Amino acid sequence: MTNRLQVRKAATALLAGALIFQLLGCGTILYPERRNQPTGQLDTDIVILDGLGLLLFVIPGVIAFGVDFVTGALFLPKGHSSRVLGLFGAVETLEFDRDDLDLEDLSDLIE
Questions:
Q1: Global model pTM greater than 0.70
Q2: Contact 41, 82 (CB under 8 A)
Q3: Which among 86, 63, 66 is positioned nearest to 74, based on CA atoms?
């Protein structure tokens, strides 16, 4: 009887710890100053944390995405950029004419 009780307590503690971990990934808790801000560019840090929660625990992950989307914590403030996207360096945009592009020109553009 005591063995079943210990297993039940351990399972309850594990579940409670997992749910608390999921709450820490919620952008509303991490960035309370972002509440009620207008939509804009997505914060990839929060999207990744909410996505991990979605992979591990479906219902809490969906709730975290919903709460972050509704409160606006999922979006970056104006003038800020994502730390994750900054790891990959600046993205350079190239303009070219699609009609006059051949294999040699494409090779030059990529270089």
A1: no
A2: yes
A3: 66
